[in-house]
C-alpha cells in the first residue's frame, strides 16, 4: 500500500508539472502494483485537477500550466481506459462536452480556458476550435452523444449563430438531448435566457460550475 | 514603410512558412519561450511600482519581445504555417515604420506623432466605445457625444447590435449591410456634430473580411478614416484577416491593427504580457504593415478589463519598451469594468490614461466603458475625462505618475469584481440636447476634484 501511495504522490507531482510521459509511466507502475482505477482517478487525479483548476481561477497559475496538466491527465486516462473497458467500469468522465467559438468569430483564448477548465474538472471535451459552423456543432453533438454544447461568441455579429444552434435543436425536437451553455463578451444571462440556452457562464470558473449543475 | 512588394512578400511567407501544429505553436513557441525570455532578461513586477520607472528594464523587455517575434513569428490558422522573419529583416522594417501621420481632413484633420516616455507633447485622444455593442437607435446619438467633445481628436466606433432591426450575422450579406450602416451613421454623427472631417475608426461591425472590404469602398468610409485588423491572441492570424490587410494596402488606407495579450493566458503573468506586447506590436508591423499599433491587454475573468495593477504595469513596461526603441505610433486602449453613472469609471480611466500618457503612447483610445460588453453602456463624457487625464499627464515624470496612480488604484480595485456596469447611455444623457445629466456631470466633477487632490492638476 505504501508503494502505491508513493507512486500516486509522484503521479500528482507529474500532473502538476504537466509531464505527460512521466504521468503515463507512473500510472502504469501504480496499476502493476495493484492500484485500482478508482484510486488513481477519483482519489488522486480528480482532486489534483480540481485544485489546479481552482488555482487558475485565482490566477495563481496560468493557462500553459493548466494546458499541460490537462495533457498529463489525458495520458493517465489513456493508460486506464483499456482496463476500465475490460472491467466495464464507468466513471472516467463526468460528462461529454462539445465546445467551440461560433461562426464568424476567431477568438479562442477564452474558449480554450473554458475547455481546459472543463477537462481538468473531469469532463470529456471535444474542442472544435473557432469559426465553427452550426452544422459542425450539431453533427459532433449527435455523433458523440454529448451532454453539453458549449458555445463562445465575442462578437455581436456571431451571436445569431448561437441562436441558430438552439433553434435547430428546438425545431428538430432534440432540445431534450443536449444542454446548451453560452458565454463571451456580448452574451449576458438575460440574452441566454431569452434565446433558450440552458445556462450562461460569465467566465471559465463559472462555466465549470454551470456544467456540473447541468449533468448532476 | 509599406508597398506592394512587401505585400507580396508577406503573402509568400504566409504560403511557404514552416508548418507547425497550433498546439505546438502555442505551448512551445509562445508560452515556453515567453517564460524563458522573462527569466533570461530579468523582468520582474515587484508589486509596488504600478508604472515602470526603470529604463533599463524597458530596454531589456524590448530585446525579449524582439527575440520572441523572431523565434515565434505569426501563426496562420488557415494553413497551419508560420510567417517568420529574421532579426535583421525585423530591424530593417522597424527602422522605416510610420512615426507620424495626418488623420481626418480639412479643419478636422489631426497630426499624430510618435511619443517618448514623459513626452511633453499631448497624446492624440481617440474617443469612443471601441466596439461596445450599441442598440441601433442609440448608435448615432452616442457617437455624436464623443465627436462633439473638443478634446477628442478622432473617434472610434461602437458596433451595431442590429441592422434595420435584423441581426448583423457575420459572413452574410447582413454583415455587409452593417458595415455600410455603420459608415452612414457615423459620418452623419460627424456632420451633426459639425466635424465632418474627423477621422473615424472603422469598420467595427465587420468581423469577417467582407464587411471591411465592402464598407471601405466608394461612398463608404473615407481614406482619412482608419481601419482595424486584429491579431488573434496570441500571435495568430488567418486568411480573412490577411484579406483585410491586402485590401487596405491596395486602397492606401490607414491601418490600425491591434493585439491584446491575455493576462494569465499563454503569455503568463504581468512580465509575460509585457514581452508579448512587444512581440505582438512588432509583428503587427511585419504581418500587416500597420500604420498604428494598438493594444488592450485583457483580464481573463474581470470582463476583459485592463485596469488591474498587474496589467497596468505590464502595459507601462511594453509601451515604454516600444516607445524607446521604435518609431511606432503606439495606441493604448482604456478598458474599465465600470460603466456610465459610476465614479469608478473615471478612476479606472484615469489609471490607464495616466499610465499610457507617461509611458509614451502616441494615442489613447476609449474608454471602452463597461469593458465594451454591456450594450449602450458608454457616453462621451468619459472620453472628455480620459483626454483631460492624457493631456495633464504629458511631461509628468514616471516617478510622480507612480505616486499618483498608487492613490488612484486602491479607490477602485476592490470594485472590479462587483456589478459596476452602471447605466445605459439614455439614462446619463439627455437624448434631446445630447448633454450629460446633472447627476452624471456631478460625478465627473467629483472625480476631477479627487484626481486633482491626488496630485494631477486638471484644468
Descriptive report:
Chain A is α/β, with parallel strands linked by helices. Helix content of chain A is 59%, strand content 10%. Chain A has helices spanning 2-17, 20-32, 37-57, 63-86, 109-120, 134-143, 159-171, 189-194, 204-215; strands at residues 96-101, 124-127, 148-152, 179-183, 199-200. In chain A, helix 2 (20-32) runs parallel beside helix 4, helix 3 runs antiparallel to helix 4 (63-86) and helix 4 crosses helix 5. The mean pLDDT of chain A is 89. Chain B has helices at 4-16, 22-40, 55-72, 87-95, 136-147, 173-192, 209-215, 239-250, 270-288, 309-325, 343-359, 380-392, 398-408, 425-428, 438-453; strands spanning 74-76, 81-83, 100-103, 110-113, 124-127, 133-134, 154-156, 159-160, 199-202, 226-231, 236-237, 254-259, 292-295, 330-333, 363-366, 429-430, 435-436. In chain B, the strands form 5 sheets. Chain B has an 8-stranded parallel barrel with strand order 5-7-9-10-12-13-14-15, surrounded by 7 helices. A 3-stranded mixed beta sheet of chain B has the order 2-1-11. Chain B has a two-stranded antiparallel ribbon with strand order 3-4. Chain B contains 15 helices and 17 strands. Chain B is of the alpha/beta class and 459 residues long. In chain B, helix 11 links the parallel strand 14 (330-333) and strand 15 (363-366). The interface between A and B is large, with 32 and 45 residues.
Per-chain topology:
The complex is a heterodimer of chains A (216) and B (459).
Chain A: H1 2-17, H2 20-32, H3 37-57, H4 63-86, E1 96-101, H5 109-120, E2 124-127, H6 134-143, E3 148-152, H7 159-171, E4 179-183, H8 189-194, E5 199-200, H9 204-215
Parallel strand pairs in A: 1-2, 1-3, 3-4, 4-5
Helix pairs in contact in A: 1-2, 1-3, 1-4, 2-4, 3-4, 4-5, 5-9, 6-7
Chain B: H1 4-16, H2 22-40, H3 55-72, E1 74-76, E2 81-83, H4 87-95, E3 100-103, E4 110-113, E5 124-127, E6 133-134, H5 136-147, E7 154-156, E8 159-160, H6 173-192, E9 199-202, H7 209-215, E10 226-231, E11 236-237, H8 239-250, E12 254-259, H9 270-288, E13 292-295, H10 309-325, E14 330-333, H11 343-359, E15 363-366, H12 380-392, H13 398-408, H14 425-428, E16 429-430, E17 435-436, H15 438-453
Parallel strand pairs in B: 1-11, 5-7, 5-15, 6-8, 7-9, 9-10, 10-12, 12-13, 13-14, 14-15
Antiparallel strand pairs in B: 1-2, 3-4, 16-17
Helix pairs in contact in B: 2-3, 2-9, 3-9, 3-10, 5-6, 5-12, 6-7, 7-8, 9-10, 10-11, 11-12, 11-13, 11-15
